[in-house]
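Hi there, hope your week has been kind to you so far. For a while now I've been wondering how a particular protein folds. I'm sending you its amino acid sequence along with the backbone structure tokens. Could you read through the record and tell me how the tokens relate to the sequence? Take your time with it, there's no hurry, and the full record follows here.
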Amino acid sequence: MDEDALSRDDIIGKVCITRDMLAEYPKGYSGWMSLSEVDPDEEVQGEIHLRVEVLGCQGSRRLRCSVLEARDLARKDRNGASDPFVRLRYNGKTQESTVVKKSCYPRWNETFEFELAEPAGEKLCVEVWDWDLVGRNDFLGKVVFSIQGLEAAGQEEGWFRLWPDKSKRRGSLGSLQLQVKLRDETVLPSHCYQPLVQLLCQEVKLGRQDGRVHLVTLLDETTTAECRQELAINLVKLFLGQGLVKEFLDLLFELELAKPCEPNTLFRSNSLASKSMESFLKVTGMPYLHFVLGPTITRVFEEKKYVELDPGKVEIKDVGCSGLHRVQTEGEVIEQGRQHLQSYLGELLDAIVRSAPACPPVIRAAFRQLFQRVGERFPQHQHAKFVAVTSFLCLRFFSPAVMTPKLFQLRDAHADARTSRTLLLLAKAIQLVGNMEPAAGRAKETWLSPLLPALQQGTARMRDFITRLVGTEEDKGEEEGEGRPPGPPPAVVKEGLLLVHKTRGKGPLLAAAAGKKLHFCLTGESLTFGKSPSRIGAIALGDILAAEKVEEKSFGSSHVMQVVYMAAGGQQETAYLQCKCVNELNQWLSALRKVCGNNPRVLRSYHPGVFRGDKWSCCHQRDRTGLGCDRTRHGVTLQDWSDPLDPTVEAQRLFHCGVSLSLRSPTDAALPEGLSRLFVVLGDLESCHRRAQPPEPPAPALLQLQT
């Protein structure tokens, strides 16, 4: 798209990625794809509900097509909807349905008949169009039926996907570089994974034993660097759910330290131990990260100061008031940049030093284990245990978040060029402090030397902070939960300000603040809302029935979602919540669907519009409590490392890693007991998957694409 500030954005071009194409790249596709022109006849979506049948006997036969309804049609008009009608073509004859105004979920319930030609070799083409008073009608998609297949079946009824018109090849408009991966897998019921989970838990509980081949070691050595990242986060989430994440990390520390290693290169590789600790910090420490970095990152974005210390990149500019302009020298620009950067660094170090009490107990316990293990391994290099902690906390957690705050949900958008450079220099400074070197300035870039005094002071402060962070005092209740899932307050999955739209509902959200902005907080237990920080009310996750998008025409915005829930009185209510951008909308929908994934009362259909006046704006039904006109999309979610824990999904992904491991490992009757048991468990799971696979569908006889 080409962004326009005063008018609608212009389309530059598109790339089309099909499921079949991604199936050819099991490890994902990465490369450049040519942009092609956007043809309105190709931009179709949605489905149409039809009943097609052949009536009569030989010599007097008729072809009947009942056009019932359609859903999720493309939005072609400026009001965020369409005015759809259906055009049927057969044997040179054309019939049309009535026009349903302003709806992407129209209902026609009309029947059309054609004299069946002899021989019946023609095709029946059902086209959906958007009617326009001025200009040409817009194509919305079509379905083509083979009459021969229909004669064999007699009658066919169902929802049929709308297909585009034949493609028109045009020249390239540039290229787009993409990385795309398709994950399509079957997750079995949780009891199927219990043997695998129990085996892994037993491995962690036994700990490291000399002369014993550990499954964790085998997983580390038989996976690629790319797969190791996914394996690490799956293991971390699984053991978090089992209450054994401290034991798991401690086992990894022991196994890593048992290898030949140098104190100054500890945990700098991409081993399973390094990846697991990094993933552990991201999954459990995001609120802590926001608490520490948030104020400084916000200040950098708001001030937009020019910060540059590299003489080769300094931009000289005029300064002063009108009539007294002078050109800044290079030294002045660098000194000014040093002052700004040192101010940001000082503020950030102050926040870090004060943050030890705010650090989650489970993270402090993990760092305490790491600190002690490294101290025991290198008693003559006590400096190494400090570097081991900062190598994760600073180099793999704080510094990447400073460099790209959007990826850590600290900002909604990426920084501009000037702010991005400031963040990069600040991230470099944090890395140098995290290296914990006495000189604290041995950087490859000699132009960072003006920061040397601040870096040396920061190194001393970081050492004091680590000492407090890994203090030997045990957190209250930490030992009481040993060996079973901990019981801290529920972790925050998603929070932020959302506008509550006024509707005719009577639920607690509308009674609280219809037409106002409220602070929403989603945890693993409920969706709470209130005027931050006070809380007005909450909706239990078990009462949430659906979380879906709302049609643009309903409130004049494409960033509105609806949360359908059961109110205290037992009646179904819907809250319409507006997000500030499409990214936030998708994040909220994804988070709500994930935490409500096991809710047995989820809806199968919903209304994407709003009930206004005496009918729904989407399908024009007049029954406010009737079934929805579109299917809900509970499974459409974003996948990232901050997902709520789902033990069955993590176990399924570990199963895939285990299958890869078993294929690479030699077949030997004298395998260690743990390995042979693992292969038995994987074999049983493989059998369960084969039984769970649906039978191959028969070849479609009715639906054909016109080429």
Observations:
- The chain has a mean pLDDT of 83.
- The chain has 18 helices and 23 strands.
- The domain at 40-161 is CATH 2.60.40.150 (Immunoglobulin-like).
- Residues 330-354 form the longest helix (25 residues).
